[in-house]
Amino acid sequence: MTTTIDEQDANNNDLVSKVKVKRAELEQMKERFAKLLLGEDMSGGGKGVSSALALTNAITNLAASVFGEQHKLAPMPEDRKRRWRREVGWLLSVTDYIVEFVASQQAGKDGSNMEIMMTQQRGDLRMNIAALKKLDAMLIGCLDNFRDQNQFWYVSKDADESEKGVQRSDKWWLPTVKVPAEGLSEESRKWMQYQKDCVNQVLKASMAINAQILGEMEIPENYIDTLPKNGRETLGDSIYKSITVDFFDPSQFLMTMDLSSELNVLDLKNKIEASIVIWKRKMNQKDSKSSWSSGISMEKREQFEERAETILILLKQRFPGLPQSSLEISKIESNKDVGHAVLESYSRVLESLASTVMNRIEDVLYADNVAQDPSLLAKKKSTSARVRVATSEDSNETPDHSPGQTPTESMTLSDFMGWSIDQEQEESNTKNGDSSPKQVEENENEKYQSYSARILARTKNSYMEKLGGIGLRSPTTRH
């Protein structure tokens, strides 16, 4: 009898505890939505931001607090995982009430059919929210797959130098990776490569969705007002001449650019986007007396714009961790579409998490390569020294920093991923030594390629990794 009473008391205590947790979560949800309704201005002074921007900041800051410390290939703690699923669910629930009218058939009592209008979730939200939730689950599932692995381990950054593992990049704050002296087993190596391929597909898909949503956002007028009236002034004479030549090779163009720092890459991206906006505006300008009119033919203008968009795609592909451009920040800050705000921020934080997980996997694979070929460490140090010398020499030159910004025509998911696959196949063929006329050019530019590879490793930091080092920051305050 005593045992039964004790069990009942335990059950009652569990029930009371669950009720308290539910009430706490309910109060937290009320507080979260109150903040959104007030536009993050809890004082009620009317100085808050729009609902769309408040949602963007809420999703960004939530992801930063949940994923910002993901420095290892290991499952997320259960409490953080539950928090992410719960709170992101609250924020995504807003899109359930963004609806559109659609025609539907209704059967009458007499058996006749009539057409009526019904509401359903807006088409882009219905498709993309489901896709992003799937990508979200895939990423968290990928981290869960590393629960019982024992082929590699991490050493604290504070450990003795003799105990430290291999550091692939200059991120000294991250723990170093160690693998067995003979490296990973063949089975583990294949499994790691499979995990990398899965995460890579998530990265491509989230990048494509984010690019598509940003492309659909309207270009703010205050951004357009800051632009000069011609592309030459935006790009500078050197870049403008390189883009408008008769024969244009985008890869060769990038080889001639100074991409030695993230700032330089972002500056080039801003200039290219601004030129695209200007050229599109000129092509759509009907009034020949307008300041936006041009003496260059429509065909030439369209050709220049296509070349600029190709450069922009290459930059986004080569530097996936690049901060948002001036145009993208301007679009996000001025956006009033709540649906677009949710899709953009959700896809962006998933892209950042995928990039982080990809980097952690590449750290392990690099440690495995070093275990099999220790000479790679010597080559890495030699390359680092050459890069420092080259950067020092380049710093004596003052690059042209014209203000730049612009809209990007979005690509479909299939187009984007198809392009990426083609690029990977081309890179794979090059690495395998396939006969190609490009080999001569590659030999001539060997110094540049090793340099750009170093830059890519250095600039491939995800947004979440940067937030982890400087605290929570929303898109409105990143630059």
From TrEMBL:
Keywords: Guanine-nucleotide releasing factor
Region feature (Disordered): 379-412, 424-453
Domain PRONE: 16-378
Residue ranges with Polar residues bias: 403-412
Record InterPro entries: PRONE_dom, RopGEF
Family matches, as PANTHER family: ROP GUANINE NUCLEOTIDE EXCHANGE FACTOR 1 (PTHR33101), ROP GUANINE NUCLEOTIDE EXCHANGE FACTOR 12 (PTHR33101:SF10)
Protein name listed in UniProt: PRONE domain-containing protein
The organism of origin for this protein: Lactuca sativa
Organism phylogeny: Eukaryota, Viridiplantae, Streptophyta, Embryophyta, Tracheophyta
